[in-house]
């Protein structure tokens, strides 16, 4: 106890002077009003003050010193017991109060009943038996105890009292937070007030008890000792405890929903207030029967009793709230501090204005007694009347206290017990006697407290019951204690809102000290000292969604929008400071401190668990329908979901996600959260934000978002395969030979769904830019997954799902048609006009892909919903191109077997001649000299069913059939030669022919491949810049359409039969096969010069006026007319791109419309007939469901193969036979020639020589089987090949030069299957 505390009431003047000097040099606590029981409120010694000091302080009051309230002091007096104790925190209730010093000592004072002071039941005092139970009646008033230090704690007070950071007092209990972050409690356990699980004799329901033992000494609250608490607040019978990570726990009597758990039930142990999970709470406060919390973003939440409007929610007074709700009137006002009184609430807004609401008879708004205030109202004194912004605020049972920027302490409200600290009270004429037992109450407006010593800084104020205190800093003239600077940050901290730690600055400091930064890293001691604090900061921030989002929030604009939805709809990039997020992660990794990295991993895991729990609760509050979601509070729910999405995004960027040691625990949690996000959030917020819009973002998209999931999938799949292999080894080969199961778990399936979300974002960004996607399709392929699953099983599940959806659609259509017929009959005499006016709602169909949903902003695909993924074919973007190709070939094989079986059934017995329509194969005989004509006739004469049979080709030359047996190689050559003829450049086309063939072709409606009018120039045009082919405008005559149909059929047949073609169609051709509209980017790919010209035209647009429009019109000199060269006549023709387009000049305002229409006409309208024929030929052969697994770009690769021959990959997959191996000298020469001497064109020619195709198949060179076989010793024979089996037959030449020469000759003559 301080030196002044031992001074007698009648101390000498010298002793009083010494005490006063001590008080001036130390932190001093001044009090006024009533701090304890009524019978001692008028005593001088109530606050441990001397008579001389009391008289001296009373002289400074402007009121008469002879007046007294109804008990209590009307002017501030020093609490001598705290002189020299350096008090950092004060809290109390009607019957007792407590104080905490900067050393962590605890003092309690007041009525010693129910064990509320923590000294047991024998009374207080360091020199008394604190554990003695005198069996006093716990419900009597108890004797008054002056401020006395608590020294004992634990069971029966056998242990020492730990250092304490803060405490809070209820009506008959006290709760403290230790410096280690643990909770201790003592006092009345009734209703679970002490939070010890009902082990202290409480009945748990708040009822009366008799003869019950009261745990009168501090003991730890059990069940939460692994949680680090930072703040605590007590109401009369309940407690709110705040963790360092912004979570709120509550326990005690739950009447009127004061605990925030959704009901009135009491809680005998701390439970999380789940409704505040997203807010990042920085301060809690408790009134008599209501509670409040302050979010890190300045939002105020209230719950509990609302008899006097103390929740500030407006509306009907008396409607209690069992769960926290944000105060709506403050949604556009950020608050920095809150305080709860008995039945009123206060808040300080940014800028220092004070808002108040609640019971009006005690003047909470500073205007005297008024009606109850149900919504926040400004207290005019602060910033309006006096322009003194408030710095701190506190609330008693019926009065309020605040400190201001000028150092003043002001009070307002009831003053019947001197609680305003400004002189004698008087009865207020408007006070309702019935409100307080018939006694009148003096209610006053805002005014300064009278009697505080001048020239001393107010560190903090406190208020409770009918009393108040102000803690003052030492005087400027006195000698300051040596540790004053350290203590300045401690005084009043426990009653202020928590602040977010400077995480980036702290991490960089530790990183530099540890050698992970730019510094020399030689300050290991500093790193060791700061690392624990950094680990705690990381744990606090990264485990809290609210702290994380607010801590990395972008600076807000100075003017807030009036519409809250504007902020909610802001792009996540605008809402988050992504640069700071990445910099913080980088600094944390650079610290090289295991405790810091571990803290980050644990915090992220807890964060993701909380987000998952919140989403689980969310889905219990909504209907099963994904559209028209109904929730109790839509606005709050939207805030929660935006916070959740932003927090998950920050966690997603963590480098620990990419680390195998942590990723296996974090990534499954992450994908579980993303998968559960509401559809509208994914569709309207997440996907647009993830959309890749530039190169820098593409790198981030892949490295931070995509790579962690791909790596996790690969690890889990490989681990599962190893486990299955180990089981198979135990049970024997029979089990291993059985057909594989799905091969993946639920986590891998969830990962695949999230990858599909990222894929949709990539495509969405490309559409927004009007360009190609920044990341290629293969970036989203999960190769390990594609290899592990049973593709046939996935395909069959998918087909069944498609059939079910089609059946549902048919039933809905039939029901709708029946309803329309019935409605028409009921209308009867109403007539057709009335029937037409009746609105008919089309059936609501979910989009097939997430990208479709993002385009329209409506609906959500089934495959993206939790539990909606029945087959990976629903999200084909995750399947490798090879896997899709295998699915397509599997589907083709099913159709081939079906058609072969049907042919056998139609023609039983007897030999079927080659080429017959009844054959089980699609057999085609072609003459090399008339290849195009023979192919056209063969395709035109076959039905779509015949075209789906397995294909066999027989060549003839000069009337002699070639001996090559078609095991695949002949078919490959057929397609290569056919495509070469179809896409032959005009200058190389033949002009020879005879009249007989021309007449025949005219009569059959087929085109002649050898005439000038029927050359490829009549169907395709070639762009000189790109070398790509496109359909000629106006080529709509029958022969040209027949040729276009043949091109489509040839490409379809090649896909159907697994043959790669060397075609040069642009990407837009494959886009249009899928029904997608062309874009300017497509035109730029086909014709770079034309595309650049149109882009330059768009750049001419600006914000100019009418004069600029005239300048643009003169510069462009174009109308809305599309000109083209007619394919048949060669004349230049034109078509209007819009009605009266020839009279509409291109101006600045309509330039975008002109470009869009020009693209549409060039790539659609002008070639519509020829492309329709091409599409008909293609879909007539290759129109199965499996085709829709491919994107247009992938279909292009499937048709044309990979344009690059990867020599290293080909060498890795090569096998050797006939005596060759990888070390054979001739083999080494061969690879050196291919890698060093051959050009890209020569490598393609080599591949064509060996395989019959000049390009590797889709999936790349590594997917190509390749065999190098020894065909004998050194000789002059040329190398040969079995193209059916991709085998190169190579003599073992004696020199590298001879190998190079012989191979070049063979490649130059690689065509035809001659006699051997």
From TrEMBL:
The residues responsible for catalysis, as annotated, are 1284
GO molecular function terms attached to this record: ubiquitin protein ligase activity
Bias class Polar residues marks the residues at 1-10
Which residues lie in Basic and acidic residues bias regions?
190-199, 482-493, 835-847
Report biased composition (Gly residues) as residue ranges.
Answer: 117-126
What PANTHER family has UniProt attached to this entry?
Answer: UBIQUITIN-PROTEIN LIGASE E3A (PTHR45622:SF60), UBIQUITIN-PROTEIN LIGASE E3A-RELATED (PTHR45622)
Name-wise, this protein is: E3 ubiquitin-protein ligase
């Amino acid at each position: 106890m301080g030196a002044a505390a031992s001074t007698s009431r009648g101390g000498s003047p010298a002793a009083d002077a010494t005490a006063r000097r001590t008080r001036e040099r130390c932190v001093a606590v001044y009090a006024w009003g009533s701090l304890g029981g009524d019978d001692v409120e008028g005593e001088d010694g109530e606050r441990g003050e001397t008579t001389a000091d009391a008289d001296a302080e009373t002289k400074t009051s402007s009121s008469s010193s002879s007046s007294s309230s109804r008990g209590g002091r009307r002017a501030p007096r020093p609490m001598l017991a705290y002189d020299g104790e350096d008090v950092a925190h004060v809290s109390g209730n009607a019957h007792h109060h407590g104080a905490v010093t900067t050393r962590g000592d605890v003092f309690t004072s007041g009525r010693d009943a129910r064990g509320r002071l923590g000294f047991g039941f024998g009374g207080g005092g360091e020199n008394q038996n604190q554990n003695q139970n005198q069996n006093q009646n716990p419900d009597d008033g108890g004797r008054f105890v002056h401020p006395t230090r608590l020294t004992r704690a634990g069971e029966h007070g056998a242990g020492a009292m730990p250092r304490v950071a803060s405490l809070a007092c209820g009506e008959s209990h006290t709760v403290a937070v230790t410096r280690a972050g643990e909770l201790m409690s003592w006092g009345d356990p009734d209703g679970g007030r002490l939070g010890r699980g009902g082990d202290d004799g409480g009945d748990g329901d708040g009822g009366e008890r008799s003869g019950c033992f009261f745990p009168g000494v501090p003991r730890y609250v059990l069940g939460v000792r692994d949680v680090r608490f930072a703040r605590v607040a007590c109401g009369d019978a309940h407690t709110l405890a705040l963790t360092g990570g912004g979570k709120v726990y509550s326990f005690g009597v739950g009447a009127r929903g004061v605990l925030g758990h959704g009901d009135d039930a009491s809680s005998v142990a701390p439970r999380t207030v789940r409704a505040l999970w997203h807010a990042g709470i920085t301060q809690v406060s408790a009134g008599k029967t209501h509670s409040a919390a302050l979010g890190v973003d300045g939002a105020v939440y209230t719950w509990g009793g609302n008899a006097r409007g103390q929740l500030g929610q407006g509306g009907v007074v008396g409607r209690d709230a069992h769960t926290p709700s944000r105060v709506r009137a403050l949604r556009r006002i950020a608050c920095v501090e809150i305080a709860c009184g008995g039945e009123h609430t206060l808040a300080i807004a940014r800028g220092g204005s004070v808002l108040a609401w609640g019971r009006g008879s005690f003047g909470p708004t500073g205007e005297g007694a008024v009606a109850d205030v149900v919504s926040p109202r400004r207290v005019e004194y602060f910033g309006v009347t006096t322009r003194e912004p408030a710095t701190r605020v506190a609330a008693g049972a019926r009065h309020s206290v605040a400190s201001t920027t000028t150092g003043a302490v002001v009070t307002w409200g009831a003053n019947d017990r001197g609680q305003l600290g400004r002189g004698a009270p008087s009865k207020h004429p408007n006070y309702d006697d019935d409100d307080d037992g018939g006694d009148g109450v003096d209610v006053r407006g805002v005014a300064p407290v009278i009697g505080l010593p001048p020239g001393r800084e107010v560190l903090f104020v406190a208020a409770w019951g009918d009393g108040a205190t102000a803690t003052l800093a030492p005087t400027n003239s006195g000698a300051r204690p040596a540790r004053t600077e350290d203590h300045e940050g401690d005084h009043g901290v426990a009653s202020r809102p928590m602040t977010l730690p400077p995480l980036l600055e702290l991490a960089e400091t530790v990183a530099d000290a540890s050698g992970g930064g730019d510094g020399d890293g030689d300050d290991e001691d500093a790193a060791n000292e700061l690392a624990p604090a950094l680990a705690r900061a990381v744990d606090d921030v990264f485990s809290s969604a609210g702290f994380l989002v607010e801590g990395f929030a972008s600076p807000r604009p100075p003017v807030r929008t009036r519409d809250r939805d504007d902020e909610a709809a802001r792009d996540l990039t605008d809402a988050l400071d992504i640069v700071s997020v990445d910099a913080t992660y980088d600094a944390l990794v650079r610290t090289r401190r295991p405790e810091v990295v571990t803290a980050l991993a644990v915090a992220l895991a807890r964060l993701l668990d909380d987000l998952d729990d919140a989403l689980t609760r969310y889905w219990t509050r909504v209907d099963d329908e994904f559209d028209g979601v109904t929730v109790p509070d839509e606005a709050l729910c939207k805030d929660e979901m935006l916070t959740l999405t932003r927090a998950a995004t920050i966690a997603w960027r963590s480098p620990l996600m990419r680390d195998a040691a942590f990723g296996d625990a974090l990534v499954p949690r992450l994908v579980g959260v993303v998968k559960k996000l509401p559809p509208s959030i994914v569709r309207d917020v997440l996907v647009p934000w993830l959309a890749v819009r530039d190169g820098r973002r593409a790198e981030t998209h892949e490295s931070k978002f995509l790579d962690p999931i791909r790596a996790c999938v690969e690890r889990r799949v490989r681990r599962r395969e190893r486990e299955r292999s180990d089981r198979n080894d135990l049970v024997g080969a029979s089990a291993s030979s059985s057909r594989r199961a799905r091969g993946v778990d639920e986590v891998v399936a969830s990962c695949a769904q999230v990858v599909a979300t990222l894929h949709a974002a990539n495509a969405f960004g490309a559409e927004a830019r009007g360009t190609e996607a920044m990341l290629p399709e293969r970036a989203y392929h999960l190769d390990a997954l594609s290899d592990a699953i049973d593709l046939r099983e996935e395909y069959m599940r998918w087909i069944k799902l498609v059939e079910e959806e089609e059946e549902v659609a048919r039933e809905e259509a039939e029901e709708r048609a029946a309803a329309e017929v019935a409605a028409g009959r009921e209308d009867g005499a109403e007539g057709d006009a009335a029937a037409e006016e009746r609105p008919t709602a089309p059936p609501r169909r979910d989009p097939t892909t997430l990208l479709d949903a993002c385009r329209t902003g409506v609906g959500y695909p089934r495959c993206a919903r939790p539990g909606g993924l029945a087959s990976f074919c629903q999200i084909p973007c995750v399947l490798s191109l090879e896997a899709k190709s295998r699915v397509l070939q599997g589907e083709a094989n099913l159709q081939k077997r079906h058609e072969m079986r049907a042919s056998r059934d139609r023609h039983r017995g007897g030999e079927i001649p080659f080429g017959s329509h009844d054959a089980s194969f699609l057999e085609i005989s072609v003459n090399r000299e008339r290849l195009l004509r023979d192919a056209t006739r063969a395709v035109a004469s076959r039905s779509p069913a015949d075209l789906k049979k397995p294909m066999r080709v027989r060549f003839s030359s000069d009337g002699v059939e070639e001996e090559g047996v078609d095991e695949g190689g002949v078919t490959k050559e057929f397609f290569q030669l056919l495509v070469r003829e179809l896409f032959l450049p005009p200058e190389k086309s033949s002009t020879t022919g005879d009249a007989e063939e021309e007449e025949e072709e005219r009569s059959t409606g087929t085109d002649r491949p050898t005439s000038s009018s029927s050359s490829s120039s009549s169907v395709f045009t070639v762009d000189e810049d790109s070398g790509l082919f496109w359909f000629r405008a106006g080529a709509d005559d029958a022969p040209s359409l027949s040729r276009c149909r043949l091109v489509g059929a040839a490409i379809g047949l090649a896909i159907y039969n697994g043959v790669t073609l060397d075609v040069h169609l642009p990407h837009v051709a494959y886009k249009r096969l899928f029904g997608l509209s062309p874009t300017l980017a497509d035109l730029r790919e086909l014709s770079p010069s034309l595309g650049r010209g149109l882009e330059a035209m768009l750049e001419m647009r600006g914000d100019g006026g009418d004069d600029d429009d005239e300048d643009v019109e003169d510069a462009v000199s174009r109308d809305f007319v599309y000109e083209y060269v007619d394919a048949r006549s060669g004349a230049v023709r034109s078509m209007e791109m819009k009605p009266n387009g020839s009279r509409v000049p291109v101006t600045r305002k309509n330039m975008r419309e002109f470009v869009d229409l020009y693209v549409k006409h060039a790539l659609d309208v002008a070639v519509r007939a020829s492309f329709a024929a091409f599409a008909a030929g293609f879909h007539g052969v290759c129109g199965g469901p499996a085709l829709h697994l491919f994107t247009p770009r992938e279909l292009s690769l499937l048709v044309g193969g990979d344009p690059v021959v990867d020599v290293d990959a080909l060498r890795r997959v090569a096998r050797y036979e006939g005596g060759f191996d990888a070390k054979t000298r001739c083999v080494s020469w061969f690879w050196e020639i291919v890698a060093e001497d051959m050009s890209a064109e020569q490598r393609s020619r080599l591949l064509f020589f060996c395989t019959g195709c000049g390009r590797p198949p889709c999936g790349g060179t590594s997917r190509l089987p390749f065999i190098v076989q020894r065909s004998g010793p050194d000789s002059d024979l040329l190398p040969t090949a079995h193209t059916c089996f991709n085998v190169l037959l190579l003599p073992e030449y004696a020199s590298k030069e001879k190998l190079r020469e012989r191979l070049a000759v063979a490649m130059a003559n690689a065509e035809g299957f001659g006699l051997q």
